[in-house]
Amino acid sequence: MRIPVHIVNVPQNVVLTSDSVDTVKVSLSDKGFVLLGYMYGDGLRPLKVNFKNYMRSTGTGSVTAAELQRMMYQQLSASTKITSTKPDRLEYFFNYGLHKRVPLRWSGRVIPEHLYFISHTEYETDSVDIYASQEKLDSINIVYTEPLNYANFRDTLSVRCNLQKMRGVKSVPDNVKITFYTDVLTEASIKDIPIQGINMPEGKVLRTFPSKVTIKFVAGVSLYRTLSAKDFTVVADYKDIASHPSDKCTLHIKKVPQGISRATLDIKQVDYLIEEE
After folding, report:
1. What is the Cα–Cα distance from 215 to 256, expressed in whole angstroms?
2. Per-residue CA distances from 200 to 205, 230, 235, 240 (Å)
3. pLDDT at position 245
4. φ and ψ of 17, to 5 deg
5. Cα separation, 172 vs 272, whole angstroms
């Protein structure tokens, strides 16, 4: 049988960093009708562990199996015997409010349908407060959700999930709503992006032929609809030109909007002149 265990009489200035309700598994031996009474009658009442009776100065409390059995025998029939108790020791953790705030991240497998991708993830809260010993607080920089497992969806997906449990650590909140927004991938291009000269000597100006280029890329349809040439930056670096003299100068993509992948230029080298301003 499984019997809940409650930690009670916790002082107001104490934060339990483990679950306030735990469970012990107990095996009982008696006549069948007595055991049926435990199983289908009123059952066994939860055990109540007085916080102060078992606390230690190290931020932990411990109740032995023998002590748990003593509490259980108080509500068992005189003929009932306890043959085993698991775990053999119940531990709880606490501190006096020591905590820090850390970022929250989802974990697991969230994969939309073919040709779709997750364009944006929105958290109900992007960070949580964790309560634990100083040693544990120093070692934790991110809190993850319990592993998620969602696949083959195309519409926006919203899930409420619990955070991964860590021994001796309490997270506030302990669950969070996460929304995954999807979009359709498309191959696209933006034309007429001006070529800019960088690291030019004072009084010099770079002229290229052609003066504008096209960038090809992969992006979500909704993002593509918002883009224009001014969102991209293509440059020719005077330092490259000076160190590798040639009839043509090499172009580089310096800036693309977030959410863009596989960006490439339609031409990578162009003719140029360096003139006085």
Report:
1. 10
2. 7, 21, 11, 11
3. 86
4. -100, 5
5. 60
Contact in structure between 194 and 234 (CB atoms under 8 Å)? yes
- 10-residue stretch averages of pLDDT, the chain, 277 residues long: 90 88 88 85 84 87 91 90 89 92 96 91 96 93 97 95 94 96 93 95 93 95 93 95 91 93 94 90
- Cα Rg of the chain, angstroms: 32
- Position 261: which residue type? S
Q: What distance in Å separates the CA atoms of residue 2 and residue 248, rounded to the nearest whole number?
A: 79
Q: What would the 3-class secondary structure string for 32-92 be?
A: HHHHHHHHHCCCCCCEEEEHHHHECCCCEEEEEHHHHHHHHHCCCCCCCEEEEEECCEEEE
| Cα 102-106-112 angle, rounded to 5 deg | 155
Hey, what are 31's tokens?
Answer: 């006549």
pLDDT of 234: 97
- Per-residue DSSP letters for the chain? -EEEEEEE---TT-EESS-SEEEEEEEEES-HHHHHHHHHSS-PPPEEEEHHHHB-TTSEEEEEHHHHHHHHHTTS-TT-EEEEEESSEEEEEEESS-EEEEEEE--EEEE-STTEEEEEEEES-SEEEEE--HHHHHH---EEBSPEEEES--S-EEEEEEBPPBTTBEEESSEEEEEEEEEEEEEEEEEEEEEEEESPPTTEEEEEESSEEEEEEEEEHHHHTT--GGG-EEEEEHHHHHHS--SEEE-EEEE--TT-EEEEES-SEEEEEEEE-
Contact 272, 206 (CB under 8 A): yes
In which residue are the tokens 């059952």 written? 43
